[in-house]
Design a protein that fits this description.
Belongs to the CbbQ/NirQ/NorQ/GpvN family. One of its GO terms (molecular function) is ATP binding. This protein folds into two domains: 190 residues, Rossmann fold (3-Layer(aba) Sandwich), CATH 3.40.50.300; 89 residues. The chain is built from twelve helices and nine strands. The strands form three sheets. Strands 2-5-8-1-9 form a five-stranded parallel beta sheet. Strands 3-4 form a two-stranded antiparallel sheet. The longest helix is centred in the first third of the chain and has 27 residues.
Length: 287
């Protein structure tokens, strides 16, 4: 009898845990494509391992980072990488200020320094867009040392125990370059795929609670078709972007579905043949 009661208690506790996790994920905005990915990433974050999110544009990597921030109730500082990113953009810069009638030089802390000192999340978006020579300054931050000597002030900064690093990359896109192996090896890497099936429907229904079932069904069919053509190599990855599909739903609540798909998805593509293919696919689902 005792074992039966204990099993029932465990079952109820597991159910409560699942409901609690689903609520937290929903509040943060990200819905996991499988039952393991979300919790596996949380384990990596809890262990203070630098996390690398790999996936196509619009797969929800930033939403995922925001959901982690929400789950741990931990503020997030963002760095958007580009070829113009330099050490000052990461660490901060010196500036001249007036205090009590005197001219002084003051150091304004950047996102890396702030996150390290305050125990916040540092989110580095599109890290493979940065110039390779800029990023080695983060090596000691990302490995077991979790420290940094600020070259602008000489200050030695040891990371707060709650400090966490999450990075995201879009592999194979124009303007990106392969990550340096020394940098990549400091991360635990997770592939973030596009959502599909019931997970995608949950996102649509959550973001657009007033949308008709017909509109959601139509967009589900179009989204699945676009993903299929991407997998077949007939469309670029960005054609299946969940972000763009959600933009299309937002427009389609006010204008025709065809025009919404054209503006939110097709017109973003460079190739005219791909744009035409998308609109042909839409014609099979929208009369």
């Amino acid at each position: 009898m005792r074992s039966i009661i204990e099993k029932e208690q465990q079952k109820r506790q597991q159910k409560e845990h699942t409901i609690h996790m689903q609520r937290l994920i929903q509040e943060g905005g990200y819905i996991s494509p499988d039952e393991y990915l979300w919790e596996d990433i949380l384990v990596g974050v809890a262990l203070k391992k630098p996390i690398l999110l790999k996936g196509p544009s619009g797969a929800g990597k930033t939403k995922l980072a925001q959901s982690i921030s929400h789950f741990f109730n931990q503020p997030m500082h963002s760095v958007n990488c580009s070829v113009d990113l330099d050490a000052e953009s990461l660490l901060g810069f010196k500036t001249i200020v007036q205090k009590d009638g005197e001219t002084m030089i003051e150091f304004v802390e950047g996102p890396v320094v702030k996150a390290m000192k305050e125990g916040h999340i540092l989110y580095i978006d599109e890290i493979n867009m940065a110039k390779p020579e800029t990023l080695p300054i983060l090596h000691s931050v990302l490995d077991h040392r979790r420290m940094l000597t600020n070259p602008f002030t000489g200050e030695v900064i040891y990371a707060h125990e709650d400090f966490t690093v999450i990075s995201a990359i879009n592999e194979g896109y124009v303007g990106t370059s392969p990550m340096n192996e020394a940098l990549k090896n400091r991360f635990i890497s997770f592939s973030i795929p596009y959502l599909s099936g019931e997970e995608l429907r949950k996102v649509m229904e959550s973001d657009f609670p007033d949308a008709s079932k017909q509109l959601i069904d139509t967009m589900m069919n179009i989204g699945n078709e676009l993903k299929k053509q991407v997998m077949n190599g007939l469309l670029s990855d960005e054609a299946a972007s969940i972000r763009s599909l959600l933009d299309a739903i937002s427009l389609a609540e006010h204008i025709s579905v065809k025009r919404a798909i054209r503006y939110a998805i097709a017109e973003k593509l460079e190739d005219q043949i791909e744009r035409n293919l998308i609109m042909e696919l839409v014609d099979t689902w929208v009369k």
